[in-house]
Specification:
Blueprint: E1 8-17, E2 22-25, H1 28-34, E3 44-47, H2 55-61, E4 69-74, E5 88-92, H3 93-97, E6 108-111, E7 114-122, E8 125-129, E9 139-148, H4 152-164, E10 170-173, E11 176-181, H5 185-191, H6 193-200, E12 203-208
Parallel strand pairs: 11-12
Antiparallel strand pairs: 1-2, 1-3, 1-9, 4-9, 5-8, 6-7, 7-8, 10-11
């Protein structure tokens, strides 16, 4: 099979800075070698040419064959972008103290899903960098296409995991995917419905359901005399 745009495939990869160290992989054995988190690592299912991976890798997948291994060198423009000097900002120490955080040089943390790195701490000011840590770097992806993914449920799960960062129960009726979601999430499903239609040919709809809360009550057994 030769990979085409919108095909669903499963890949495993090792990503590294050119002439540098590995910064990402979904292969547990490779992650262990460089001290990366290995929990829940598994091959990645994606729709090709649908921006579910960085642009340079997405483009390189087209025309490749299942079962073979490949390597691609990707420039910053098609990887994690160029460095933006405007994303290097000075933040008052008080802003960190309000969040009970004591910033130190080299520390990395997330703000609204964005990685922020502390460059330096001086007096009451903290110099921070909101650029992606890989911004401005040439990266190399070594990857293997394991298989074509034909199963509709697996395809839908791959897209919803990418869109929602979690998986909801769903059913497919005619040309619609109906997700069972908590109140509030239904609005987001409506927002991304077109993306589902573009990738899968199915519109996304939401059915609001009550989220069952886990009970902390411990039932005690009583003995009868």
């Amino acid at each position: 099979m030769v990979v085409k745009s919108k095909d669903f495939i499963e890949i495993e990869f090792v990503a590294k800075v050119k002439d540098g160290e590995i910064f990402d992989t979904n292969i547990p054995e490779e992650a262990k070698k460089v001290g990366l988190e290995v929990k829940n690592l598994k091959p990645y299912v994606l729709a090709v040419d649908q921006e579910m991976v960085i642009k340079g890798l997405d483009k390189d997948l087209i025309g490749k064959e299942v079962g073979k291994e490949y390597s691609v060198e990707i420039k910053p423009e098609e990887a994690f972008g160029k460095r933006n000097p405007q994303l290097v900002r000075m933040i008052p120490m008080s802003a960190f103290k309000e969040q009970n955080v004591m910033p130190q040089r080299g520390m990395q943390f997330e703000i609204d899903g964005q990685v922020v790195r502390v460059i330096s701490v001086s007096g009451g000011r903290v110099l921070t960098d909101f650029n992606n840590p890989m911004a401005g770097k040439v990266v190399v992806y070594n990857y293997k296409i394991n298989r074509e993914v034909k199963d509709q449920k697996e395809q839908i799960d791959a897209v919803q995991d990418f869109m929602f960062r979690k998986k909801f129960p769903f059913e497919v009726k005619e040309k619609e995917i109906i997700f069972e979601v908590e109140k509030g999430m239904d609005k987001y499903v409506e927002m991304v419905s077109k993306a589902f239609e573009d990738i899968l040919g199915l519109k996304a709809k939401a059915k609001v359901v009550e989220v069952q809360k886990k009970s902390n009550t411990i039932e005690k057994e009583t003995k009868k005399d």
